Input
Amino acid sequence: MAVLARQPLATATPLRVAYRRILVPLIDTDCSEQAMGIACQLAEDRGAGVTAVSVVEVPVELPLDAHMLDADAHAKHVLEHAQAIGDLYGVRVAPRVLRARAAGEAIVEEATRARTEIIVLRAPRKQRSQRSIQVFGKTVDYVMKRSPCRVMVAASPGEGC
Output
């Protein structure tokens, strides 16, 4: 009769996940720095590409191609800042401005179109009430529920990033 003993798990080499296509939705420069830093750290070892997107949410009463000069300028500024962060890490960043009615839908569509392997988001935690089940805002919740790939949420306490 053989006696079985518990054997320790083999730990030859730690498992490292490598992502080749990373998507980072950006809102403003403060949150952008943190999200881009995380994405660039994931990307730099493997020469992965990072796509930085800024979504211009167009109100329902306007056509999607409506002139929203301030929102477009802000989106471009955020993406330029993201490219500068990518340059610091030596990571190639592809900027994209997306126009949509809802940011969450645009992010998921872009992730699907680009065959993204991971989405890196930076979001504050919401103050939860007894009735609320949302930990983050509606955009982050939408992306987490409908994303075609993994989602990494770097959370911060409070309302700001």
User: Anything to note?
Assistant: DSSP finds four helices and five strands in the chain. Residues 21-156 form a domain with the Rossmann fold fold (CATH 3.40.50.620).
